[in-house]
Amino acid sequence: MLEKYVEEEFEALCLKYGGNKVVKKVVLQFEDKRFFNNFKETVTKNRRGEVGFLLKRKNGRFVLVRSKKYPSDVLRIPTGGIEFNETAEEALYREVKEELGVSFDVEKFEGLIEYEIHHEDDVLKFYSFLFVIDEIGGEILKDATDNEIFKIREFHKEELPEAEISLRNNNGSWKDWCSFRAELLKFYNEQNPKPEG
Fold first, then answer.
1. Whole-angstrom Cα distance, residue 6 to residue 128?
2. pTM (2 decimals)?
3. Which of 32, 77, 127, 153 gets the highest tally of CB atoms within 10 A of its CB?
């Protein structure tokens, strides 16, 4: 069950931007204690959730990103933390400027993932608000105000399920993180299935 402030924010975003009014509950089991504790510390100290922003470029392709610290085969939907003193919408505009540097219109609010993340007897709750945004200006990465994103790759919509599978199949030391990051792609792909035929 959603916390009241999250439910109210979710309803307001659905009303403003449309979308499917979908809340998806995801339960994950993390194996790596160090990763779980680092994630828990980050969530506790400086974020109450995150925004995911799937950018559609002017050519119709979607952008996935990689940071220098990621394994070379890891690409994901860009995300950014929602600080305790801001709304998801405010975080979206701040984070897109910081990470991608483009101006945009919100095409759709895709919905909300409510995570329940387990490690041994510890449980962490976390929220991801997913937006689909349309690029309208700026130079991607060049106009970004931080250097977190190292590389982008453009995907046709039909290729996004393969990107999700690639993340999910990462079994190295980044396995927990990749399974977590695959959920945003899975959520988008479930709401926007490939046309049959």
1. 11
2. 0.94
3. 77
